[in-house]
Amino acid sequence: MKVREMLQKTRSIRIPEEGYTVEMTVAEELLNSVEPGATIQHTDKSAMKSGAGIFYVAVTDEDLKKSLVNQGIKLPSGEEWVFFDIDKNKCCWLLSAKPYFLYAALSYVLENLSENDVSDLGTWTREMSFAIERSTFDIFLTQYARLIRDFNRERYIREYARLGFTHIEVNALSTPAPKEAGIQGEFYPDFYTYCPALDQFVSSRLNHGIYPQEYLNANLKLLKENAQLAVKYGLVPGLLCFEPRSVPETLFKRYPTLRGARVDHPFRSFKPRFNLSIAHPVVQKHYTELLTKLLIEVPDLEFLSIWSNDSGAGFEHTKSLYVGRNGGAYLIREWKDDAEIANAAASNIIDFFTLLRDTASRINPRFRVMTRLESFYGEHEYLWPQIEDRIDVEANSLLARGWESNYTHPQYPDVNVSGSGYHNTLSDKEKEPLDELDSRGSHCFFYHSFGPHMNHEPLLGIPFPWLTHQKLRASRKINARTLAHLGGIQPPDKVPFAVNQEIFREFQFNPELDIDKTVQSIAERYTGKDHAEDLVKVWHSTEQAIRGFMPLPLYSHYGLVWQRLLVRPLVPHIDRIPEKERAYYEKFMCTSIHNPNRVDLARDVLFELITKDYARKVFMRIDDHVWEPLEEAIELLKEKMELPAQVDRNHDFRVFEDQYFRIKALRCLYETLRHTAVWIYAVHEYLDAADHSKKADCRKLLDEMIEREIQNCREFIRLWKEAPLEWMIISGAGETPFIHGENFPVLLKKKIALMEKHRDDEPYIDPDYMFRIPNNPYE
Fold first, then answer.
1. How many CB atoms sit inside 10 A of residue 251's CB?
2. Over 70: is that where the pLDDT of 402 sits?
3. Residues 516 and 555 in one domain
4. Where a domain ends, among 126, 152, 174?
5. Any idea what the Cα angle at residue 470 is, between residues 376 and 410, rounded to 5°?
6. Do 363 and 488 belong together in one domain?
């Protein structure tokens, strides 16, 4: 008899009387798999006895474990396990050591084990590979892509639970734009749309009335809804905030002595922005009140991740503040040397984290505070020894300092990578600082990313299962038991065939899996045994192309959208286009009006993003290693898409159609990135060249690039019109600097028109562009 057939004989689903919300969630879902008329009953844990037609669902505690052991049920001895058994009395048991693994276990039984013979299955137990798998900077649920159209929040959160995640962030703004006042022409307020601070949800006696109450209420309502959905599926809700974040100047008019550090970026911001001095006891009471109010409203909140020293937040007197070390009046006096300042700043950071941890722990004793260490490279030697006891860190590497990348591209050892899917290894040397943290009662959450963010944003559903597996395997090798997944998962209502996250799910249940057999199994699930081999070939070829791609700093992940690369014209002299004609994309660029990036793709504020030599390597390597395997994948998909009409009308070929449009979109995205690299090399080399022949070579490169990019835009438009699926992140609330809108094809047409009009302009970049000011009185 199959497991599925045995489940159908269930007459009573029983869950503990005093238990977890997820137990009821699992029980209700089980009703769809059992015989009609089955009921859900609550029972005392001591009354959980074997009986025919009963299906027990429970998160175990010590009393239940003892009761089950006394009945002869052998439970795993670890702390993160799941258990399924159909005993000799034909009674079913679904048990989990932790609430956040129970729904994952149910899903695995129904999806992966239901066709097994009961006699062959025996007792099914798994020790989960990762004790904590936490989402962080979830662009869809809480961050800047929360405006994605037709987003199903519950289905998305349920998918987290199905995959084997444990913790998710739940704080998001309810409005498309933040309540941050700016100056005309200033971009800076838009940065406040993500990682909203504590004061965006509740107020204290200190800042009461600073933000409209209806705004705070709406944000808190959304936070509570997200938290309730998390708990429904057994997940642990928490917060991700930029803190200590700047506050409106109106608050300093009330309390001028509470001014803390200047935390804005002087190039991107048109006015100074300050936070409150957390060294002041009144400010500490303010934060205590904010967090206490939040925990009273949502006592299930169990963590607070703090990102800082960016996007309008920062700690006083830390080195990486954009305007340099500075702060309020209370932390350290002037004219101290750098070491003394760094030491004081580090202690101030730890004191703040300790305050937040202890405050929240009065309501939820399991509460943890965590932070990224990159921003504190100037304080690291003083900060590191003080991290302990539920103060955690999250990082790409514990061996790096600051924002340095100490891991290399899987195919190009001369290219450093960090955080993206290309970061597929971890050194054994990571284990020493990891063990040190563990000995102090702290965790390190190592980053990984198998979704759109940091990889192919704004595209959805791009497959790279082997890279995904390599990072998971590397994490297990150093005994990293706590991970943080960057950027959110693929929304299941938009990406039905998300092989990367299926690899994570399988790995969470079985770290010793054979990756090739697992990929084959997933392909069979998607399209049946007869055609699975071809689907695997498609994924192999696609990942080969992805591995052959050489990333461009900033542009190869979120910067592609933020800097509007897909819709801005790649012409030799961008500044020749009148500002009014550029406004359709510059209005939404993540840039200030005097940022040289507006006319020079190699620059952003004072950064040289990409040298011309690096850019030349990029487009040459793309040409050598990307197009051939990508075309192989696309051609095979085209063949498979034509088969159903000729051979097998009844077979489900949706996966081949799905992957065809997504990989065609990937080709278009890579084309634009290649052409960006050509622009950087050819324009800068043209300007540097002394002889005519070199300039002619650059001109030829630009002409070829422009023609190809125009055709590439037309291909994007064709995909938009023809694809019966969502292959790209699109806003349902209008275009913003962080997400494209439904006007995307209209903007592509404008780009084409401007490129055709200005393709023959002579290459030029104004070296003094950033010094321009409107209405210059000296001109």
1. 20
2. yes
3. no
4. 126
5. 75
6. yes
Based on the fold, state whether residues 178 and 116 are members of the same structural domain.
Answer: no
Residue 779 lies in a domain: no
Coil, strand or helix at 41: strand
Kindly report, residue by residue over 248-263, the tens digit of the pLDDT: 999 999 999 999 999 9
Does 146 lie in the same domain as 117? no
Structure tokens at 193: 């749309």
Q: Is residue 384 assigned to a domain?
A: yes
Q: Could you give phi then psi for residue 226, rounded to 5 degrees? A: -65, -40
**117 and 87 share a domain?**
yes
pLDDT in tens, 208-220: 999 999 999 999 9
> Measured between alpha carbons, how far is residue 497 from residues 89, 132, 158, 523, 525 in Å?
38, 25, 16, 9, 10
Structure tokens at 234: 């057994």
Task: Locate 469 and state its tokens.
Answer: 């597996």
**Number of domains composing the chain:** 3
Residues 518 and 575 in one domain: no
Statement: residue 778 has pLDDT above 80: yes
Q: What is the CATH number of the domain that holds 94?
A: 3.30.379.10
Report, as an integer, the average pLDDT of 471-486. Answer: 98
> Which residues pair with residue 506 across a beta bridge?
none
pLDDT of 644 strictly over 80:
no
pLDDT band at 519 (very low <50, low <70, confident <90, very high): very high
The pLDDT, as a whole number, for residue 645 is 53
Between strands 39-43 and 12-16, the pairing is: parallel
Pairing of strands 444-448, 607-608: unpaired
What is the average pLDDT across 412-434? 97
47 & 146 share domain: no
- 3-class SS at 146? helix
| Strands 124-127, 81-86: pairing kind | antiparallel
Tokens of 248: 């409106």
φ, ψ of residue 502 to 5 degrees: the values are -70, -35
Question: How many Cα atoms sit within 13 Å of 259 on the Cβ side?
Answer: 14
pLDDT one-digit tens code per residue, 568-608: 999 999 999 999 999 999 999 999 999 999 999 999 999 99
Q: How far apart are the first and last CA of the chain?
A: 88
Residue for token pair 């009387």: 17
Calculate mean pLDDT across residues 260-274: 97
Distance CA(677)–CA(552), nearest Å, equals: 8
- Give me the domain span that covers residue 691: 545-771
Q: Are residues 116 and 151 in the same domain?
A: no
The answer to whether 545 and 625 have CB atoms below 8 angstroms apart is yes
HSE (side-chain half, CA atoms, 13 Å) at 293: 17
Q: Is residue 778 part of a domain?
A: no
470 in a structural domain: yes
Whether the link from the prior residue into 596 is cis, omega within 30° of 0, is: no
